[in-house]
Amino acid sequence: MNPMKRMAAAWSALVVLFVGAGCSSSGGDEEDTPQPAPSASGPSTRPADGDTGAFRGMTLPSWNTHDYDSPQAATYLQQIAATGARWVTLTPTWYQDRVTDSELRTTEETASDESLRSIIRRAHDAGLAIMVKPHVDLVKGGDRAGIRPADPDAWFAAYRRFITHYADLAADTGVEQLSVGTELAGTSQDGARWSGVIAAVRGRYRGRLTYAANYDEYRNVPFWKDLDVIGIDAYWPLADRATTDGAQLREAWKPIADELAAFSERQQRKVLFTEAGYVSQRGTTTAPYSWTVSKSDGSAEQAAAYEALLASFDGKAWWAGVCWWMWDDWPDSGETAKHLAYTPHGKPAEEVLRRWWAHTG
Protein backbone atom coordinates (compact mmCIF):
# COMPACT_ATOMS: atom_id res chain seq x y z
CA MET A 1 0.00 0.00 0.00
CA ASN A 2 1.48 3.31 -1.11
CA PRO A 3 2.12 5.37 2.04
CA MET A 4 1.55 8.55 0.07
CA LYS A 5 -2.06 7.43 -0.26
CA ARG A 6 -2.56 7.89 3.48
CA MET A 7 -3.73 11.40 2.70
CA ALA A 8 -6.59 10.37 0.41
CA ALA A 9 -8.38 7.48 -1.25
CA ALA A 10 -6.05 5.84 -3.69
CA TRP A 11 -6.41 4.19 -7.05
CA SER A 12 -9.43 4.08 -9.27
CA ALA A 13 -12.81 3.51 -7.66
CA LEU A 14 -14.19 2.41 -11.02
CA VAL A 15 -12.42 -0.92 -10.85
CA VAL A 16 -14.66 -3.96 -11.14
CA LEU A 17 -14.18 -7.38 -9.55
CA PHE A 18 -11.88 -9.43 -11.68
CA VAL A 19 -9.02 -11.44 -10.07
CA GLY A 20 -7.12 -11.44 -6.75
CA ALA A 21 -4.98 -12.82 -3.90
CA GLY A 22 -3.33 -12.23 -0.38
CA CYS A 23 -0.59 -13.10 2.26
CA SER A 24 -1.64 -15.84 4.82
CA SER A 25 -2.31 -19.53 4.93
CA SER A 26 -2.40 -22.18 7.57
CA GLY A 27 -1.74 -25.01 5.18
CA GLY A 28 1.56 -25.39 3.39
CA ASP A 29 3.74 -28.10 1.94
CA GLU A 30 7.27 -28.78 3.05
CA GLU A 31 8.54 -27.80 -0.39
CA ASP A 32 7.08 -24.30 0.01
CA THR A 33 9.04 -23.50 3.15
CA PRO A 34 11.64 -20.87 2.23
CA GLN A 35 15.18 -21.46 3.37
CA PRO A 36 16.97 -18.55 5.00
CA ALA A 37 19.59 -16.92 2.79
CA PRO A 38 23.17 -17.82 3.67
CA SER A 39 24.66 -15.21 5.98
CA ALA A 40 28.15 -14.68 7.27
CA SER A 41 26.83 -12.54 10.10
CA GLY A 42 23.26 -13.63 10.66
CA PRO A 43 21.13 -12.98 13.72
CA SER A 44 21.85 -14.63 17.05
CA THR A 45 18.64 -16.65 16.73
CA ARG A 46 16.18 -17.19 13.90
CA PRO A 47 13.39 -19.58 12.97
CA ALA A 48 14.91 -23.01 12.44
CA ASP A 49 15.43 -24.15 8.86
CA GLY A 50 12.27 -25.78 7.61
CA ASP A 51 10.18 -24.08 10.31
CA THR A 52 9.13 -20.83 8.65
CA GLY A 53 5.91 -22.44 7.50
CA ALA A 54 3.16 -21.11 5.27
CA PHE A 55 3.09 -17.34 4.83
CA ARG A 56 0.92 -16.05 7.63
CA GLY A 57 2.17 -12.51 7.80
CA MET A 58 1.71 -8.92 8.90
CA THR A 59 3.30 -5.82 7.41
CA LEU A 60 5.08 -3.42 9.74
CA PRO A 61 5.78 -0.40 7.52
CA SER A 62 8.20 2.38 8.35
CA TRP A 63 7.55 6.05 7.73
CA ASN A 64 10.70 7.55 9.27
CA THR A 65 14.44 6.88 9.51
CA HIS A 66 14.41 5.42 13.01
CA ASP A 67 11.00 3.71 13.25
CA TYR A 68 12.52 0.26 13.11
CA ASP A 69 14.98 0.84 15.94
CA SER A 70 12.51 2.71 18.15
CA PRO A 71 11.55 1.36 21.60
CA GLN A 72 8.13 0.40 20.23
CA ALA A 73 9.59 -2.04 17.69
CA ALA A 74 10.01 -4.99 20.05
CA THR A 75 6.49 -4.52 21.40
CA TYR A 76 4.97 -4.51 17.92
CA LEU A 77 6.83 -7.66 16.94
CA GLN A 78 5.65 -9.49 20.06
CA GLN A 79 2.07 -8.38 19.38
CA ILE A 80 2.29 -9.56 15.78
CA ALA A 81 3.67 -12.95 16.85
CA ALA A 82 0.86 -13.29 19.41
CA THR A 83 -1.73 -13.31 16.60
CA GLY A 84 -0.19 -16.55 15.32
CA ALA A 85 1.63 -14.80 12.49
CA ARG A 86 4.87 -16.44 11.42
CA TRP A 87 6.09 -13.69 9.10
CA VAL A 88 6.61 -9.95 9.26
CA THR A 89 7.13 -7.77 6.18
CA LEU A 90 9.36 -4.67 6.33
CA THR A 91 9.13 -1.81 3.81
CA PRO A 92 12.17 0.48 3.42
CA THR A 93 11.24 3.21 0.93
CA TRP A 94 13.23 5.35 -1.50
CA TYR A 95 11.80 8.30 -3.40
CA GLN A 96 11.82 10.10 -6.72
CA ASP A 97 10.46 13.57 -7.44
CA ARG A 98 8.36 12.98 -10.55
CA VAL A 99 7.00 9.97 -12.39
CA THR A 100 9.32 10.67 -15.33
CA ASP A 101 12.53 10.97 -13.25
CA SER A 102 15.37 8.46 -13.22
CA GLU A 103 16.94 9.27 -9.85
CA LEU A 104 16.05 7.35 -6.68
CA ARG A 105 17.19 8.56 -3.28
CA THR A 106 16.70 8.16 0.43
CA THR A 107 14.92 10.81 2.51
CA GLU A 108 14.14 11.31 6.20
CA GLU A 109 11.25 8.88 5.62
CA THR A 110 13.58 6.04 4.56
CA ALA A 111 14.33 3.43 7.20
CA SER A 112 18.04 3.45 7.93
CA ASP A 113 20.05 0.31 7.26
CA GLU A 114 20.97 0.21 10.95
CA SER A 115 17.31 0.25 11.94
CA LEU A 116 16.52 -2.52 9.44
CA ARG A 117 19.30 -4.68 10.81
CA SER A 118 18.03 -4.02 14.31
CA ILE A 119 14.43 -5.01 13.62
CA ILE A 120 15.49 -8.07 11.60
CA ARG A 121 17.42 -9.31 14.66
CA ARG A 122 14.45 -8.57 16.89
CA ALA A 123 12.01 -10.30 14.54
CA HIS A 124 14.12 -13.43 14.37
CA ASP A 125 14.42 -13.37 18.16
CA ALA A 126 10.60 -13.23 18.30
CA GLY A 127 10.42 -16.35 16.11
CA LEU A 128 9.26 -14.52 12.98
CA ALA A 129 10.49 -15.04 9.44
CA ILE A 130 10.99 -11.91 7.36
CA MET A 131 10.14 -10.56 3.95
CA VAL A 132 11.84 -7.31 2.97
CA LYS A 133 9.63 -5.51 0.45
CA PRO A 134 11.32 -2.27 -0.66
CA HIS A 135 9.05 0.47 -1.99
CA VAL A 136 9.58 3.38 -4.37
CA ASP A 137 7.35 6.41 -3.83
CA LEU A 138 6.96 9.97 -5.03
CA VAL A 139 8.17 12.86 -2.86
CA LYS A 140 5.06 14.94 -3.44
CA GLY A 141 2.61 12.08 -3.36
CA GLY A 142 0.82 10.16 -6.07
CA ASP A 143 0.64 6.57 -7.16
CA ARG A 144 3.88 4.67 -7.76
CA ALA A 145 2.05 2.77 -10.51
CA GLY A 146 2.29 5.97 -12.52
CA ILE A 147 6.10 5.93 -12.64
CA ARG A 148 7.07 5.93 -16.33
CA PRO A 149 10.65 7.17 -16.64
CA ALA A 150 11.59 9.34 -19.60
CA ASP A 151 14.91 7.48 -19.71
CA PRO A 152 14.17 3.81 -18.95
CA ASP A 153 17.84 2.77 -19.13
CA ALA A 154 18.82 5.33 -16.50
CA TRP A 155 15.85 4.48 -14.27
CA PHE A 156 16.51 0.74 -14.38
CA ALA A 157 20.20 1.33 -13.64
CA ALA A 158 19.20 3.37 -10.59
CA TYR A 159 16.59 0.78 -9.61
CA ARG A 160 19.15 -2.02 -9.85
CA ARG A 161 21.43 -0.14 -7.44
CA PHE A 162 18.49 0.35 -5.09
CA ILE A 163 17.23 -3.23 -5.05
CA THR A 164 20.65 -4.92 -4.96
CA HIS A 165 21.45 -2.77 -1.92
CA TYR A 166 18.61 -4.53 -0.13
CA ALA A 167 19.54 -7.90 -1.62
CA ASP A 168 22.95 -7.54 0.02
CA LEU A 169 21.38 -6.52 3.33
CA ALA A 170 18.90 -9.40 3.15
CA ALA A 171 21.64 -11.92 2.44
CA ASP A 172 23.81 -10.57 5.25
CA THR A 173 21.02 -10.71 7.84
CA GLY A 174 19.45 -14.06 6.93
CA VAL A 175 16.17 -12.64 5.59
CA GLU A 176 13.97 -15.44 4.29
CA GLN A 177 12.24 -13.67 1.38
CA LEU A 178 12.74 -10.55 -0.74
CA SER A 179 10.36 -8.71 -3.03
CA VAL A 180 12.13 -7.25 -6.06
CA GLY A 181 9.48 -4.54 -6.49
CA THR A 182 6.06 -3.27 -5.45
CA GLU A 183 3.20 -2.02 -7.62
CA LEU A 184 5.40 -0.54 -10.39
CA ALA A 185 2.84 -1.08 -13.13
CA GLY A 186 4.29 1.69 -15.29
CA THR A 187 7.50 -0.32 -15.73
CA SER A 188 6.56 -3.92 -15.00
CA GLN A 189 5.65 -4.80 -18.59
CA ASP A 190 9.31 -4.28 -19.56
CA GLY A 191 10.19 -7.93 -19.16
CA ALA A 192 13.75 -7.77 -20.49
CA ARG A 193 14.89 -5.01 -18.14
CA TRP A 194 13.15 -6.57 -15.16
CA SER A 195 14.72 -9.96 -15.91
CA GLY A 196 18.09 -8.24 -15.81
CA VAL A 197 17.26 -6.72 -12.41
CA ILE A 198 16.15 -10.10 -11.07
CA ALA A 199 19.32 -11.78 -12.33
CA ALA A 200 21.39 -9.15 -10.51
CA VAL A 201 19.45 -9.83 -7.31
CA ARG A 202 19.90 -13.60 -7.70
CA GLY A 203 23.65 -13.00 -7.92
CA ARG A 204 23.61 -11.52 -4.41
CA TYR A 205 20.74 -13.21 -2.56
CA ARG A 206 19.79 -16.89 -2.49
CA GLY A 207 16.47 -16.71 -0.64
CA ARG A 208 12.99 -16.79 -2.16
CA LEU A 209 12.01 -13.96 -4.52
CA THR A 210 8.68 -12.41 -5.45
CA TYR A 211 7.30 -9.20 -6.96
CA ALA A 212 4.27 -7.46 -5.39
CA ALA A 213 1.95 -6.66 -8.30
CA ASN A 214 -1.23 -4.72 -7.76
CA TYR A 215 -4.44 -6.74 -8.24
CA ASP A 216 -5.10 -5.03 -11.57
CA GLU A 217 -1.47 -5.41 -12.72
CA TYR A 218 -0.43 -9.03 -12.17
CA ARG A 219 -1.78 -10.45 -15.43
CA ASN A 220 0.46 -8.10 -17.44
CA VAL A 221 3.71 -8.97 -15.64
CA PRO A 222 5.90 -10.99 -18.04
CA PHE A 223 8.62 -12.14 -15.64
CA TRP A 224 6.84 -14.40 -13.13
CA LYS A 225 8.88 -17.42 -14.17
CA ASP A 226 12.06 -15.57 -13.18
CA LEU A 227 10.70 -15.55 -9.61
CA ASP A 228 9.77 -18.18 -7.05
CA VAL A 229 6.24 -17.06 -6.20
CA ILE A 230 3.62 -14.76 -7.74
CA GLY A 231 2.97 -11.78 -5.46
CA ILE A 232 -0.32 -9.87 -5.59
CA ASP A 233 -1.52 -6.94 -3.50
CA ALA A 234 -5.08 -8.17 -3.14
CA TYR A 235 -7.29 -5.07 -2.91
CA TRP A 236 -10.20 -6.31 -5.04
CA PRO A 237 -13.51 -4.61 -4.29
CA LEU A 238 -15.90 -7.24 -2.99
CA ALA A 239 -19.19 -5.35 -2.72
CA ASP A 240 -20.97 -2.30 -4.08
CA ARG A 241 -22.17 -1.22 -0.64
CA ALA A 242 -21.08 -1.71 2.96
CA THR A 243 -21.69 -5.25 4.20
CA THR A 244 -20.80 -7.65 6.99
CA ASP A 245 -22.42 -10.58 5.16
CA GLY A 246 -19.73 -13.27 5.14
CA ALA A 247 -21.55 -15.44 2.62
CA GLN A 248 -21.78 -12.51 0.20
CA LEU A 249 -18.10 -11.72 0.60
CA ARG A 250 -17.05 -15.34 0.09
CA GLU A 251 -19.22 -15.50 -3.02
CA ALA A 252 -17.44 -12.40 -4.37
CA TRP A 253 -14.08 -14.12 -3.94
CA LYS A 254 -15.10 -17.21 -5.95
CA PRO A 255 -14.52 -15.90 -9.50
CA ILE A 256 -11.32 -14.23 -8.35
CA ALA A 257 -10.08 -17.47 -6.82
CA ASP A 258 -10.95 -19.42 -9.97
CA GLU A 259 -8.99 -16.99 -12.14
CA LEU A 260 -6.02 -17.06 -9.77
CA ALA A 261 -5.98 -20.85 -9.69
CA ALA A 262 -5.84 -20.94 -13.48
CA PHE A 263 -3.15 -18.25 -13.57
CA SER A 264 -1.07 -20.13 -11.00
CA GLU A 265 -1.30 -23.30 -13.10
CA ARG A 266 -0.23 -21.47 -16.26
CA GLN A 267 2.74 -19.85 -14.54
CA GLN A 268 3.62 -22.95 -12.48
CA ARG A 269 4.01 -20.75 -9.43
CA LYS A 270 1.99 -20.37 -6.25
CA VAL A 271 0.22 -17.10 -5.48
CA LEU A 272 1.12 -15.10 -2.40
CA PHE A 273 -0.99 -12.16 -1.28
CA THR A 274 1.92 -9.82 -0.62
CA GLU A 275 -0.65 -7.38 0.76
CA ALA A 276 -4.30 -7.57 1.74
CA GLY A 277 -6.12 -5.30 4.12
CA TYR A 278 -9.20 -3.36 5.09
CA VAL A 279 -9.63 -0.17 7.07
CA SER A 280 -12.09 -0.37 9.94
CA GLN A 281 -14.46 2.05 8.20
CA ARG A 282 -17.95 1.41 6.96
CA GLY A 283 -17.71 0.53 3.27
CA THR A 284 -14.18 -0.89 3.34
CA THR A 285 -15.22 -3.94 1.29
CA THR A 286 -16.23 -1.61 -1.56
CA ALA A 287 -12.73 -0.08 -1.82
CA PRO A 288 -10.15 -2.02 0.19
CA TYR A 289 -7.35 0.11 -1.30
CA SER A 290 -8.69 3.33 0.23
CA TRP A 291 -7.56 4.86 3.53
CA THR A 292 -10.64 7.13 3.57
CA VAL A 293 -13.80 5.24 2.64
CA SER A 294 -15.89 6.92 5.33
CA LYS A 295 -15.74 8.42 8.82
CA SER A 296 -18.00 5.75 10.31
CA ASP A 297 -16.76 2.82 12.37
CA GLY A 298 -16.55 -0.36 10.33
CA SER A 299 -14.71 -2.74 12.62
CA ALA A 300 -17.34 -5.44 12.11
CA GLU A 301 -17.03 -5.08 8.33
CA GLN A 302 -13.23 -5.26 8.60
CA ALA A 303 -13.51 -8.47 10.62
CA ALA A 304 -15.99 -9.98 8.16
CA ALA A 305 -13.60 -9.20 5.30
CA TYR A 306 -10.68 -10.86 7.13
CA GLU A 307 -12.82 -13.93 7.80
CA ALA A 308 -14.03 -14.13 4.19
CA LEU A 309 -10.53 -13.95 2.72
CA LEU A 310 -9.15 -16.63 5.01
CA ALA A 311 -12.17 -18.88 4.54
CA SER A 312 -12.00 -18.48 0.76
CA PHE A 313 -8.31 -19.27 0.30
CA ASP A 314 -7.02 -21.26 3.24
CA GLY A 315 -5.94 -24.76 2.23
CA LYS A 316 -5.94 -24.13 -1.52
CA ALA A 317 -2.89 -25.89 -2.93
CA TRP A 318 -1.94 -23.01 -5.24
CA TRP A 319 -2.15 -20.32 -2.54
CA ALA A 320 1.04 -19.52 -0.62
CA GLY A 321 -0.56 -17.31 2.03
CA VAL A 322 -1.28 -13.68 2.95
CA CYS A 323 0.55 -10.71 4.43
CA TRP A 324 -1.90 -8.27 5.98
CA TRP A 325 -1.56 -4.53 5.64
CA MET A 326 -0.81 -3.44 8.39
CA TRP A 327 0.00 -3.43 12.12
CA ASP A 328 -0.07 -0.27 14.24
CA ASP A 329 1.39 3.00 13.05
CA TRP A 330 4.37 4.30 14.96
CA PRO A 331 3.59 6.81 17.74
CA ASP A 332 2.78 10.27 16.37
CA SER A 333 3.06 9.15 12.72
CA GLY A 334 -0.46 7.97 11.94
CA GLU A 335 -2.57 10.23 9.74
CA THR A 336 -5.65 8.03 10.19
CA ALA A 337 -7.09 7.54 13.66
CA LYS A 338 -6.32 4.03 14.90
CA HIS A 339 -9.99 3.11 15.32
CA LEU A 340 -10.50 3.79 11.58
CA ALA A 341 -7.11 2.63 10.25
CA TYR A 342 -5.93 -0.58 8.56
CA THR A 343 -4.57 -2.11 11.74
CA PRO A 344 -6.56 -5.04 13.15
CA HIS A 345 -4.89 -4.54 16.55
CA GLY A 346 -7.40 -4.40 19.38
CA LYS A 347 -10.33 -4.90 17.00
CA PRO A 348 -12.54 -7.88 16.10
CA ALA A 349 -10.27 -8.57 13.09
CA GLU A 350 -7.41 -9.43 15.43
CA GLU A 351 -9.60 -12.08 17.03
CA VAL A 352 -10.32 -13.48 13.55
CA LEU A 353 -6.58 -13.83 12.98
CA ARG A 354 -6.09 -15.54 16.32
CA ARG A 355 -8.85 -18.05 15.57
CA TRP A 356 -7.33 -18.91 12.21
CA TRP A 357 -3.65 -18.75 13.10
CA ALA A 358 -2.84 -19.09 16.77
CA HIS A 359 -3.33 -22.85 17.04
CA THR A 360 -1.99 -23.90 13.63
CA GLY A 361 1.48 -25.22 13.03
Helical fraction: 25-40%
Question: Uncertain segments of ≥5 residues (pLDDT<50)?
Answer: 3-52
General shape: globular
User: What is the element string, with H for helices and E for strands?
Assistant: EHEEHEEHEHEEHEHEH
Q: Kindly state the mean pLDDT as a whole number?
A: 88
Within the CATH hierarchy, at the fold level, what is the topology? TIM Barrel
How does the helix and strand content classify structurally?
alpha/beta
So what's the CATH class?
Alpha Beta
Oligomer: single chain
Count structural domains.
Answer: 1
The largest β sheet comes out as: 8 strands, parallel, barrel
Structural write-up:
The two termini are 28 Å apart. The protein has helices at residues 72-82, 113-125, 152-173, 191-202, 246-267, 299-313, 348-357, and strands spanning 55-61, 87-91, 93-96, 129-132, 135-138, 177-182, 208-214, 230-233, 271-276, 319-324. Strand 9, helix 6 (299-313) and strand 10 form a beta-alpha-beta unit. The chain is globular and about 50 Å long. Strands 1-2-4-6-7-8-9-10 form an eight-stranded parallel β-barrel, surrounded by five helices. It has a two-stranded parallel ribbon with strand order 3-5. With 361 residues, it is an alpha/beta fold. It has one domain (3-8, 22-357): TIM Barrel (Alpha-Beta Barrel). The chain is built from seven helices and ten strands.
